[in-house]
Amino acid sequence: MWEYEHSVETAASAGTVWRHWSDMALWPRWNDGIESIEIDGPFAVGTTFTMTPPGDEPIRMRLTEIEPDKWFTDEMDAGDFVVRTVHRLEPADGRTRIVYRTEITGPAADEVGPQLGPAITADFPDVLAALVRLAEEG
Q: What Gene3D superfamilies would the database entry show (predicted)?
């Protein structure tokens, strides 16, 4: 298994952050790692979506777990490995902690994780900083 976690704190409420997370069509506005996104349904467990990173191939994903105003999980299943990212909101002394945690599991995880994992998570600090800026604006 390969894993990575990054978190930041914001003065924005969990509900405000959640509003930006649950509006998937607008993710490319604050996440520079998404050139485009196609969503096959509402922000709900089971909905699939395709994200295209800038200059890269589209990635097919699925929402697998959702607890409104608290967390959601998305997964990319490649057969011999699964990339799972948990997006979590936690109370933090009157603030909100935003946590992104990615795990790569499965038979090929030890082989692909060290190469793929850092490529996937490299922009987490920038993505979370942009999300915080947007959430603190309202």
A: 3.30.530.20
* pLDDT tens track for 86-114: 999 999 999 999 999 999 999 999 999 99
Residue 117 tokens read as 């994992």
Radius of gyration of the CA atoms of the chain, in A: 15
Residue 70 gets which letter from DSSP? T
DSSP state of 12: S
Residues 15/137, Cβ–Cβ less than 8 Å: no
The token pair that represents 39 in the structure block: 């969503």
Question: Is this prediction's pTM over 0.70?
Answer: yes
Q: What is the domain partition of the chain in residue ranges? A: 2-108+123-137
Residue 57 CA neighbour count, 13 Å, CB half: 3
pLDDT in tens, 2-16: 999 999 999 999 999
Instruction: Tell me which CATH code domain 2-108+123-137 carries.
Output: 3.30.530.20
Question: Where are the extended beta strands (E) located within 30-136?
Answer: 36-39, 48-52, 59-67, 71-77, 82-92, 95-105
Name the DSSP letter for residue 134.
H
**What is the chain's length?**
138
